[in-house]
Amino acid sequence: MSHENANALRSVGVNCQDYAIHNHPYGYASQSRKCTPLWIKDHYMMYDVIQIFHSDAMLFKMVSGHPNVIIYHTGTRYRENKLRYDQLFKGRKIITDQCEFLLHNPTFEYLAPHTNLKPVKHNRKGQMIVGHYPSNHKVKGTSQIEKMLKGFKSKYDIRMDIRLTSHPENLLRVSESDIYIELFAPLQGGKPYGCFGVSAFEATALGCLVVTNNINRPAYEDVYGTQPFLTPNCEDDFIETFKYLHDREYVELIKSALHENFHIKHGIIETGYRIKNLIS
After folding, report:
1. Which fold has domain 129-262?
2. How far apart are CA 120 and CA 118, in angstroms?
């Protein structure tokens, strides 16, 4: 996410350099330059703006003397200890890609990820393919998704796999789906959880109709307008969703309505301008 954030800023002419202490486990072909904590400590004051990702307290401690540090809350670390991080980053601008976090603090700025992926065209007939390939099946609600889909095995070609693959391999299997289920976990540990992530945007960009969660629709819609996903947030709604996705023609009609302007709103340049405005 931090690397794509930097790519978006560079696309609109901002001189932005991005660094990471560890390489990403997905092994992306393009990712942030690797550096050491000592390098950060010695160089951070040369920048006008510092952006820290994933609520990283260690990195923040190293650069806290900078007057313009922006924090990104993006997942589990913040979700599990909100009050600690609220106190730690008090007074700093906060940006998040998690609609859920704005239920806790509506002053956070919402930023959706961008994608350069393009729709993959298929000339299929017969059963539609429903895909679900979670990055973490325990937090994405995979067991419940499998249970809820049992009654639809004769209607859809359901493909689920919890094995992790490389990013390109995963995009290939996602692109084969007519309908992609990213997530069903409105609650986790008894607390609100369910909001879509990067994979929902990737699947939509590839041309899938995405079924996911969003327990705080206004967070997205106040910034970007119509939400491009189907977001059932309870078991009954999830089952009803798959009942009314009754044929390919109907799904294509829904996609054409929901996907309209998706690539414009979530392209790299448009995202670059939004980030630039947020951090200026």
Report:
1. Rossmann fold (3.40.50)
2. 6
Q: What three-state secondary structure class fits 110? A: strand
Burial class (CB in 10 A: 0-12, 13-18, 19+), 73: buried
Task: Extract the runs of DSSP E, i.e. beta strands, from the chain.
Answer: 19-20, 33-34, 50-52, 69-73, 93-96, 109-110, 129-132, 157-160, 179-181, 187-188, 191-192, 209-211
Q: How far apart are CA 160 and CA 137, in angstroms?
A: 10
Per-residue pLDDT tens, the chain, 280 aa: give them.
899 999 999 999 999 999 999 887 777 778 899 999 999 999 999 999 999 999 999 999 999 999 999 999 999 899 999 999 999 999 999 999 999 999 999 999 999 999 989 999 888 888 999 999 999 999 999 999 999 999 999 999 999 999 999 889 999 999 999 999 999 999 888 888 999 999 999 999 999 999 999 999 999 999 999 999 999 999 999 999 999 998 999 999 999 999 999 999 999 999 999 999 999 9
> Which residue do the tokens 């956070």 mark?
108
Phi, psi of 95 (to 5 degrees): -125, 145
Give, for 252, the enclosing helix (H) or strand (E).
helix 248-258
Sheet arrangement for strand 179-181: 157-160, 129-132, 179-181, 209-211
Sorted by where each begins, the domain ranges of the chain are 2-114+266-279, 129-262
